[in-house]
Amino acid sequence: MFPRRLVWVFLAVCFMCLFNLEYLANIFGKEPEVIFNRFLINTPGCRVRVLAHPKKPVPFVEPIHVMGCSRPQLISPLYEDDNNYLKASNIEEDLQCKCWRMERQDDRSNKYLQERQFSLSRDENEPIQVECGHQMYRIQCRNNENVVKYNDVIFFIPPPFEKEKTPRPFEKKPESLSVMILGIDSLSQMHFERNFPHLTSFLDYVPHTFFLGYSRVGLDAYENVVPLLSGLRSDELEQRCLSANKSTYDKCGLLWEKFKDAGYSTIYGEDTAKGIFTDERAGFRKQPTDFYLHPVMLEMDKHTRYSIDASELIHCSGGRQFFDVLNDFIDKLSFYMQTAPFFSLFWHSQGVKDYYHYARRLDVDYVKRLRRLLEMDILDNTLVLLMSDYGLRSGKYRLTYSGMREESQPFLVAIYPDWLKAKYPFAMDNFKQNAHNLVTAFDLHATLKDVMDLNLLQNQHVENRTDILRGYPPKKVPRGVSLFLPLPLKRNCDSAGIPSHYCPCTDLTEIPTDDGIVLRTARFLIASINQIIGPHQKCQQLRLYKVMLAYFVDLGESSFVYELRLRVSTIPGDGLFEGTARLTDTFHLTGPITRVNEYRSQSFCVNETSIKMYCYCPN
C-alpha cells in the first residue's frame, strides 16, 4: 500500500503531464482526423468513417482577399414593353461606343451580324433601342483620348408570352416534375458544412435529403458529369458516339435530349467558356439546349474579360464577375421556369476550385438563389440537385489527411416538393433511405430518367421494379440504380462503378516510406507517368525525388487484394502525385495518378488538359 502522500504526488504529476501534453497538442499536435466508431455509411458493403472537422481555422491556408471587379458596369440590358434597350448609367465623361450584334456559330466561335455606333454623354442618356427577341451584343466604349472605358457583352432573354403582362400559371403535363442541377465545383461534404451555414439553415425550411455516401467516379468535372448526363463513363461515351477524329457530342444522346423529347424546355450554363464539354474538347456543333450560355461566355473570354486575382483564375467582364453572369442567366430564365416543365444544368467553377476560403463567399448567394425559386413557386414543381463533382484537388489543405479523403466525397443534397412524399410514399421512402448508402452519378442518371415518367414511382411499379432488382445475381446488379428504388445493402465501390483509388469505403494505414515494396511501387507510378507523357516530346521525363506518404489500403477482411496508396515528389518541377497500385504478380493502377499541387505555367508547351498536370516543359 503506497503512503497517501505519494499517491497525491503521483496524481499531481499525472495532471501536470496531461495539461502539458494538451497544451503542446494544441500548439503543435495533430487533431484526430477520423472519428473512430462513427460512420457516415455503415452497410455490409461499405463503411465510411466520419472525418473530424478542424477545431480551429486551418493555419497554413491564407484567407482569400476580398475581390471585386475593378471596372464599372456602364451599360445594362433593359426589357420594357416587348422591346430591348441598352440602358446607360454612371457615365462620367463623353464616350463613343461600338455595338456588335452576334449569334452563335459553334462552340468555338460566334458570327457577327451587324455593327452600329452610338454616343453617351455625362448628362442624362435615353435608353438605346436594339433588336427584339433573344439577342447578344458586344459593346466597346472609348473616351475622347481613345482610351477604352467600357468593354462588355450584354444579352437579352425576354420573358415568355411577351404580350401578356402577367405570367401564365405552370402548365404542367398530367405528371411532370422539373429538374434543376446547381453544380459547385470542388466542394466536398465537409467543405460544404464548413462554409455554408446560412444555406444549411435554409434547408431546414424545405423538404430535402443529404446523400452522405455520394462519391466521385472520375478524375475531373467532365468524368463526373458525363455519367450523370449519359449513364456511362466518359471513355464509354466517347467510344459509343465520338469518332476517331474527336467529333462533337451532338449524337451522344445526353439527358437533356431525352427531356426535350419528353416535352421539357432545356437549359445549360456555366460560368466559364472552358467548360465541361469545351475545355480542350470539341463541344457541340448545334446548340445542345433551348437556352445556352456558352456563346456569351465565349465572347467574354475572347474579348472582354480581365482577372481580379494574382493567379488570373477569377474573371470579370464590365463590372460583373463571370459567376454574376451565370446568376443573371438563371434570373432571366426564371419566368420560363414558372410556365413550363424544364431540365436545367448550371455549373459554377471559378474561384471555388482554386481557393480554400472562396466557398464561404457563395453561401449567401445560393440562399438568395433558392429563396427566389421558393418565392416564385418554382420549387413547388422542381427537383433541385445541389451538388459537386469532388473535393478540392490541389492546394495546401489537400495535402492533409482530411483533404485527401474529402477529395472523393463531394456533397449532394436534393430539394423536392412536399407532394412527392404524399403521392409516391414507397419511392420517397427509398429515396431517403438511400442517403445512407453509396451513391454515384450513375444512380443520378437513372433517377432523373424516372422523373420523365412519374408513373414509374407509383407504389405498385416500385414494388415490381424492386423485385426485379433483387432478382439480379450480385455481380449482375446494374451500375446505376434509381434512387427511388432500394439500393443493395451489400453495394461496394466495385459494384457502384467507383474506381478503387476514389473508394471512400477503405481504411488507410500509414506505413514506412522507405520500405522496399513502397519504393518499388513509387518507381512504378513514375514509370506510368512517363509512359503517359512519352508521346509528347516537349515534356521532360520525371524522376522520383522522394516518397512523401505511403498507406496500406484496407479493402476489408474478405479481400485478398493488396493495394498501396502513395504520394510521391518528382523532379524536375517539384510535382506531387498520388496513385494507388494493386499488387499481384505485377503492379496495376486502380485509377488515374493525380497531381495534388499546382503546376500553373510549368506545362506551357502542351495544350491537352489530360497531359498538363504531368508535363514539365523545360525553359
UniProtKB/TrEMBL annotation:
InterPro entries documented for this protein: Alkaline_phosphatase_core_sf (IPR017850), DUF229 (IPR004245)
UniProt xrefs under SUPFAM superfamilies: Alkaline phosphatase-like
A single cellular component GO annotation: extracellular space
Top-level taxon in the UniProt lineage: Eukaryota
A Pfam family that the UniProt record links to this protein: DUF229
Gene3D superfamilies per the UniProt record, alphabetical: Alkaline Phosphatase, subunit A (3.40.720.10)
Alphabetical list of PANTHER family matching this protein: FI08016P-RELATED (PTHR10974:SF1)
Identification of the protein by name: Uncharacterized protein
